[in-house]
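2.7 Reproducibility. Because tokenized structures are sensitive to small changes in the input, we list the exact sequence used for Alpha/beta hydrolase, including any N-terminal residues retained from the expression construct. No trimming or masking was applied before prediction.
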Amino acid sequence: MASANRGEHREERGTGTGTRVPGAPEFTGPRVADFLRAPYRQVEVTGGALRYRRSGHGPPLVFLHGPLVNGNLWRKVVPLLTDRFDCVVLDLPFGSHTLPMSPGARLDPPAMARLVAEAVETLGLAPARLVGNDTGGALAQLLMAHRPEVVHDVVLTSCDTYENFLPPVFRTLPLLAKTPGGMAVLAQLLRSGGLRRLPFAYGLLTRRPIEAAALTSYVTPMRRDAAVRHDLAKALRDLDARHTLGAVEGLRRFPRRVLLAWGEYDRVFPLRHAYRLHRDLPDSELVTLPDAGAFVPEDSPVQLAELIHDFFPPGSR
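Resulting structure tokens (single pass, no recycling of outputs):
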């Protein structure tokens, strides 16, 4: 387990507003645009297919997100990593995806984790380096606990853990998902820019507002496609702490390294849970980012990219 001194040093390095990723290109708007223009590919999994974007060269990194967002969550981070990593950004069927699953597909958390494992194995990435945020981090924990053979080292940014799955502010979502027409109501509510900023939506997740274009990419699929709403309802119904609590014993036996990168401004995923994870994981390092909320890739992309560069040093395999 990382020493306290080392963790303190890395926290100091993560605070600078002018942090530069060693050997990486400058973070600029056009590079984000290049990421957004990258072509989608598909990988077949049980019950359908997942869309993904892939760019860069080197050891592969697989990026995982949570509900009501898609791979665009990583649009500011990936351009800083493609100089040395093969970045695979999945669009999971969490309501902001554009390729619906088959009507009978299972999308509870263990099933969703299995879809990630299938994608990793089909693409020849196993054991994969995972980078997860929000419920994407919970899926990574399920794989670490129950399918450790498909997982290499892991970076977990602020995410669901222990009893905090879902966080209290979002616990009405599974109830809404079980209500006939509930997802259509949610999709219509999220059409309004003002409502998107409320706590039950995206308001508590970042320190600064998310760009309108990114939010539009998150809410448009569920608004336009009933099949996407059907997937979202299935994905939300069983988000429950029994899954993350059931993974704890497996996490305590996880044999690989884990970096925990948590937002100090996070009002959704308590920092105390990051410290608890740090204690439970045999080989982990905890870094806190003072300028980041729950969506660390939104608030601190440069600092997060730097941490990933350092965590996977040159020559690592």
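Residues 109-122 form the longest helix (14 residues).
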